[in-house]
UniProtKB/TrEMBL annotation, chain A:
InterPro entries: CcO_II (IPR045187), CcO_II-like_C (IPR002429), Copper_CuA (IPR001505), Cupredoxin (IPR008972), CuRO_CcO_Caa3_II (IPR034236), Cyt_c-like_dom (IPR009056), Cyt_c-like_dom_sf (IPR036909). Pfam families: COX2 (PF00116), Cytochrom_C (PF00034). This is C-type cytochrome. It comes from the Bacteria. It catalyses: 4 Fe(II)-[cytochrome c] + O2 + 8 H(+)(in) = 4 Fe(III)-[cytochrome c] + 2 H2O + 4 H(+)(out).
From TrEMBL, chain B:
The chain crosses the membrane at residues 47-69, 90-108. This is Tripartite tricarboxylate transporter TctB family protein. Keywords: Membrane, Transmembrane, Transmembrane helix.
């Protein structure tokens, strides 16, 4: 998994990584130079010390050098920033809305909605449009791009692309409330064909299962009122205040990067989400669903993949 | 020139005041242009925002140049020998140094307008 500025997965991230290395190495070189001069000033002979203390040396090293270095860095950095703003035409558009404490992901041209996981085909130009449904969040996938603020009432845009398959981790980078630290997500970079298959699965309506145990889960999901907040494509449940659950079983994590995704963590999450991620919007269902119902709901949701 | 009991500090800070005014004005102009959709606008055939920012930058640089030059003349001219009586030499030197620093800061903050697309 990639979660570092120093592990770039696309051309935009590569330019940012280059800039980071320039700053790290340049900063280290200047630090060593200053330490060397300090050593000379402390232990050098009188001639060396006189030259180091001369007005000309102080003006050159203390004024001219920093002004030149900082000016050059400023011009270079602004050049990188300007280059990152350009993109190829007709990109794939992806909209992400930050919410306390999860991410709604939409592909407006494909009419699909998902959550906490963004699939992106390798080599395609992507236009990302981000906003917020409540407070200010920040969308940050270090191996993809810089931070992008998510501001209520404003859409921020970025262009980027990924040049090889892999899984990248992203994280909310602007304090947004008690569970800010547990507001993560994953970017899945995959080949175009695989991406299209994923979209197909996401678009397919979910039918009521034949298998009795799963059908019991479907029933209990409806009776417990889960559909007031959650949507499952093709079912009567179309709530939008919580994450869309279509293909939930196929996701890499639960509760926005909080838990690994398997039957036990899912059942545990439904029973007691406030014990796992206190302050999130989902109430506990351990008093609404009995044991068999809870297991059936979890089994049905895990089967959606 | 200096009235007794009148602080010489405002003269030394003149460069910083010009810098702050320039910063506030170009930041505000850019924000208003982006918010009102004027970023692509033109005025007398020139791109509106860059022209405005460059105009304000030229004015600000002119102002700090005047401040710096006057301080320089006082340093070179009749000030020597009168230290402690009127304007301490150090304050004149500070005025000049701050004017130079302000000029640099003004240049640095005008640079993004030329290099980065507005409202990106």
């Amino acid at each position: 998994m990639h979660h570092s500025v120093l592990s770039p997965m696309g051309p935009e991230a590569a330019r940012i990584a280059e800039l980071s290395w320039l700053l790290f190495l340049g900063g280290a070189a200047i630090f060593l130079l200053v330490m060397l001069l300090l050593a000379l000033a402390l232990g050098g002979g009188p001639g060396v010390r006189r030259r180091l203390g001369a007005r000309r040396a102080i003006l050159a090293g203390g004024v001219a050098f920093p002004v030149l270095v900082l000016s050059a860095l400023l011009v270079h950095t602004l050049g990188v920033a300007a280059a990152l703003g350009l993109g190829e035409p007709a990109p794939l558009r992806i909209e992400v809305t930050g919410r306390q404490y999860w991410w709604e992901v939409r592909y407006p041209d494909r009419e699909v909605v998902t959550a906490n996981e963004i699939h992106i085909p390798v080599g395609r130009a992507v236009e990302l449009l981000v906003d917020s449904g409540d407070v200010i969040h920040s969308f940050w996938v270090p191996s993809l791009h810089g931070k992008i603020d998510m501001i209520p009432g404003r859409v921020n845009r970025r262009r980027f692309s990924l040049d090889r398959p892999g899984v990248l981790r992203g994280q909310c980078a602007e304090f947004c409330g008690t569970q800010h630290a547990l507001m993560a997500f994953f970017v899945v970079a995959e080949e175009e064909a695989e991406f299209e298959r994923w979209l197909e699965r996401l678009r397919a309506p979910v039918a009521k299962p034949e298998e009795p145990f799963l059908a019991q889960g479907w029933q209990a999901f409806g009776q417990a009122g889960c559909g007031a907040c959650h949507a499952v494509r093709g079912t009567p449940w179309a709530g939008r205040s919580g994450p869309d659950l279509t293909l939930l079983g196929g996701r890499l994590s639960l509760a926005a990067g909080t838990l690994d995704n398997h039957l036990a963590t899912l059942a545990g999450w439904i029973a007691g989400p406030q014990d796992i991620k206190p302050g999130n919007r989902m109430p506990a269902f351990n008093t609404v669903l009995d044991g068999p119902e809870l297991r059936a709901v979890a089994a049905w949701l895990e089967s959606l993949r | 020139m200096q009235v007794a009991g009148f602080s010489p500090i405002p003269a030394a800070l003149a460069g910083l005041i010009v810098w702050a005014a320039h910063f506030g004005l170009i930041y505000g102009a850019n924000a208003v242009a982006c918010a009102r959709g004027l970023a692509g606008g033109r005025w007398l055939g020139l791109p509106l925002v860059p022209a405005l920012v460059l105009g304000l930058t030229a004015l600000a640089l002119l102002a700090v140049a005047v401040i710096g030059l006057r301080a320089w003349q006082r340093l070179e001219g009749g000030l020597s020998g009168q230290e402690g009586e009127n304007e301490p030499r150090f304050m004149v030197w500070l005025t000049l140094a701050i004017a130079l620093l302000s000029a640099l800061a003004i240049l640095w903050e005008a640079l993004p307008v030329l290099l980065v697309p507005a409202c990106a």
